[in-house]
Amino acid sequence: MGKSVCFLVSEHPFLDARIFKKEAKSLVKEGYQVTMIVPRRNGYLFDVDGTIFREKFRKKQFTHEGIKIITYEQLFPERKIKHLYTNLLSAGSKRFKDRLTQLGIAEKADIYHAHEFLSLYSGIGIKRTLSAMGKNAKLIYDSHELDPDPYEKQASRIKKIKRESLQLMLKETDHVITVSKSIQSSFKSMNRELPATVIFNSPRLTPECKPGQGINKELTLVYEGVMNETRGSFHKLMQITEKCNETFPLKVIIIGGSKKPDNPLKIPPHLKDKIKQTGWVDYESVSEAMQGADLGWIDLDAGHLLNHRFAMPNKFFSYLNNGIPVLVNQCKDMEEFIRKYNCGYIVEGFQPTAEDYVQALLYLNSNRGKLPEMSRNARKIMETDYSWDHMEKRLLSIYDSLLN
User: Fold this and answer.
1) First-residue to last-residue Cα distance in the chain
2) Considering the domain boundaries, does residue 209 fall inside one?
3) What is the mean pLDDT of residues 99-117?
4) What share of the chain is helix, strand, coil (3-state, %, to 5)?
5) Domains held by the chain: number
6) pLDDT in tens, 121-164
7) What is residue 176's three-state secondary structure?
8) Are 70 and 149 in the same domain?
9) Closest to 39 (Cα-Cα) out of 6, 83, 70, 79
């Protein structure tokens, strides 16, 4: 059997760190022929920060860093979720007429790797079609999150149809990849016979790690990722910064921030000398932007979304990779990881207040001697078990098992 793989993407940007930078490039390095079928928005591809590529990546098909890219106009079939469910119930693939499915069929790949609920749906149509043509293609579902999330604010009827649709699709899926152990367990509860592997959202090991925990005059907190008026707990972070600086000096680094250049973060004037904004930086430059941080901050609403409670996000492993202990609220999988390896500090509660974080930072500032040990532990576990160098082996093992 050959070694051709086709990534199916319905929502993510084509340069997504997990999809392109890690998985696709790892497979190319191993000798796979990799194609990605990815969405455009109003005719344009878009970057990880939401920026539209207006001057480049204009062709409908091109090759980038050894990976074949095929584009299509983004679809929104979730608006007709009952129709999708009916198609899944039907025999064969004649009812699968969406563009992603049709482009995928044309590739005739050995393995299809879907990255969202809707791209998995297209994967089912592709697999059925190729099977009728005599080709036994394999299908992977790389579940970046729980979809549907039973806690999400959505009509119960829609969630019920989506869950039943997912159960049907899993019967025709050959392997599931998840980003946390709790999400893995959720899939196993739906289909105990289906192989499911956790591949964490970790980066490759940075060649140099020079953490400075505990030696800065100002305790330095870093945040990586999207942050705006509604995401990333921006207002809470401003409250934390203000209250801490009433007692001890706290500095904050924000890597990323707003996805809209015309709507930057509105830092209160009296805090501007306490907040450093790097803006969005290249994936390879994140490590440098984190230099000098004492703690990496994550705050998720674990009370209203299971996806938050079960999360193991990119930033979590970025912090650890650079020897930066993680300060996070009570999110199940991150909490268990931190307690096991003593590589961070847990703030109790699914929805802690700014004052809860202030008290934690007051404690950590008064006990700076604990930070270097947490830092060493963070870096060590990435070196020995959790960097992408280790996750890559898990990915290649899945592919080997499907091909052989």
Assistant:
1) 8
2) no
3) 97
4) 40, 20, 40
5) 2
6) 999 999 999 999 999 999 999 999 988 888 888 888 889 999 99
7) strand
8) yes
9) 70
